[in-house]
């Protein structure tokens, strides 16, 4: 009862079907080939035109199935795998038309009734389909068009609005921790809270935590935070902010770095997005607003400028647990707190993956593993007693996902001590759910959250397999007498690429004899974890990146 149409040009599919007939759920192309002895380049061109044609007639949730002989696709699924330049590069070709590879399955001709492979070199001859693979493609979410976004927050007694840094536009106010969210970071936070509440009375105090801090940072690298400029009309006076911010640990004395408002009152110039919830907790502690023996939990997104690595996040969700206890009991209470976190985390990991994880508490003075970006920044905030590390390999020391602090000087009372634990919920979600790239936690593709129904934690299965990567180099002269800000360099790459730069590596550093001028060469790798990224789009991003670093970092391109 099916309609069969012959002599259809696969590169012009919409010409053969009326508009009402173009919403295909499946499009199959078994063993495409230009014919005769066509090389890989011509066959790539055929596939490129085919995928663009599919985009015009495929339903929104439809699939494109392409079967290729073993080795042709150029993906790790091929056994053996051809060299990239000698393959059809099917994932990169499909990405140019807005498709991602969502699954790869063996092509089993014997399961298809009446199927016969024929057409070897345009002849009535069969060809080898042993090891052939069926590649299943789905539509990618489109690239985000990030327009400037303003955000409103409380600063002291006044509400102010500010322009969100472009690199954070798609990450601000996402609501992952809200009650109606099924995001894994919220599920993990709720599971940890439930476990902790069995050992201590627990109170959540996360509402109305301001996004902005004011003043100068002490002990924290200036380039590690997102600085915000408020317009003169938005900047509150000292009187308006002093009440709400007097207890913040990073406020500086007003001095030469101030302007004055129309009343002659000094106005601090510097505002920045909160890089930690610790100052809020310390302010609450100093006010004596915490009940001894009760766990107080603060949670919310925090923002830090950092270098690009698979686990370095410019924004993540922090869960800060604060406990005031009687002096002399801090070690035992801290141990109960840590044991509870370890037990809950281990139980969650075993439920999700069936494997017992490696969870260790390492003293800060003897921490043997190289600090990740999260742990390194936490060290700048103040003294740390222990690092909490979680690993999926029982033999490894794991990655730092939390820090434990004991602060006897936070309270005016000599009888109480503050114990706190800061946890990176995003890193925990990655480790527990098998998510290899932090960017996936922030994807707008609904296929991510569909894997975590009603807050259930599961092992994540990527809907974008073997995403293509594109490598570009950039070389430039550094301004004379200036230290090159590598964090700012990485942040510009994040902004220009929409977080599709996955790696930046220093390839060469050269100092010119005689003049002393210094030249740096970096290798920039573009790769998206959740959407289609074609080579042309990556090349355009590289060109914009070159322009941006020249304009904002003052370098001279080579």
Entry keywords:
26% strand, Fdx_antiC-bd, Alpha-Beta Plaits, 558 residues, 3 domains, Rossmann fold, globular, 4-stranded mixed β-sheet, 22 strands, transit peptide, alpha+beta, Fdx_antiC-bd_sf, BirA Bifunctional Protein, domain 2, 7-stranded mixed β-sheet, 11 helices, ATP-binding
Overview of the structural elements:
Helices cover 23% and strands 26% of the residues. The protein has a 7-stranded mixed sheet, sandwiched between helices. A 4-stranded mixed sheet has the order 1-2-4-3. It is of the alpha+beta class. A hairpin with an 8-residue loop joins strand 17 (399-407) and strand 18 (416-424). The model is unreliable at 238-268 (pLDDT under 50). It folds into 3 domains: 13-139, Rossmann fold, CATH 3.40.50; 176-211 and 275-454, BirA Bifunctional Protein, domain 2, CATH 3.30.930.10; 470-557, Ferrodoxin-fold anticodon-binding domain (Alpha-Beta Plaits, 2-Layer Sandwich). It has 11 helices and 22 strands.
Briefly characterize the structure.
It comes from Machaerirhynchus nigripectus. This protein is of the alpha+beta class. The protein has eleven helices and 22 strands.
Task: Outline the secondary-structure elements.
Blueprint lengths: L23 E7 L9 H15 L3 E11 L21 H6 L3 E8 L26 E7 L10 E6 L2 E6 L20 H13 L5 E3 L7 E3 L12 E2 L9 H8 L12 E3 L5 E3 L2 E3 L4 H9 L8 E9 L11 E12 L3 H24 L4 E6 L9 H9 L4 E6 L7 E9 L8 E9 H9 L12 H4 L20 E8 L8 H12 L3 E11 L6 E9 L8 H19 L2 E2 L1
GO molecular function, one term: ATP binding
EC number: 6.1.1.20
Catalytic activity: tRNA(Phe) + L-phenylalanine + ATP = L-phenylalanyl-tRNA(Phe) + AMP + diphosphate + H(+)
